[in-house]
């Protein structure tokens, strides 16, 4: 229903920061909850963070809490993931996703639209 495209990935040193963006088109972005997931080679895709349609309710995985900040600007139809104090274990392809509802926010199957992913590599 909504098309997504991530940008902002790259190579950074441990302790550095990156800001990922997720641009949306198609259906009204404000009607969807937005999630961020990541997947390292040979590993399962895992939940990182989610934000509801209004931006007033947020959830983080324990592994990124206090380091990452999720936000959205519905007027610009764009979601963001600010990543600080990056660690080598954060290295992965990061995906944004959109879905209706909130209770399934940590589950891949609860999202109906996905971006193509953007690579984040953190060196030691």
What would you note in describing this structure?
Helix content is 0%, strand content 51%. The protein has 124 residues and is mostly beta strands. The strands form two sheets. Strands 2, 4, 5, 6, 9, 10 and 11 form a seven-stranded mixed sheet that branches. A four-stranded antiparallel sheet has the order 1-3-8-7, with no helix packed on it.
SSE order, one letter for each helix or strand: EEEEEEEEEEE
Whole-angstrom Rg: 13 Å
Oligomer: single chain
Any idea what the shape is? globular
**Largest sheet, strands/sense/barrel:** 7 strands, mixed
Keywords, please?
124 residues, mainly beta, four-stranded antiparallel beta sheet
Helices and strands in order:
Elements: E1 2-7, E2 10-13, E3 18-26, E4 33-39, E5 46-51, E6 58-60, E7 68-73, E8 78-83, E9 92-99, E10 113-114, E11 118-123
Parallel strand pairs: 2-11
Antiparallel strand pairs: 1-3, 3-8, 4-5, 4-9, 5-6, 7-8, 9-10, 9-11
Briefly, what is this?
This protein is 0% helix and 51% strand. The protein is built from no helices and eleven strands.
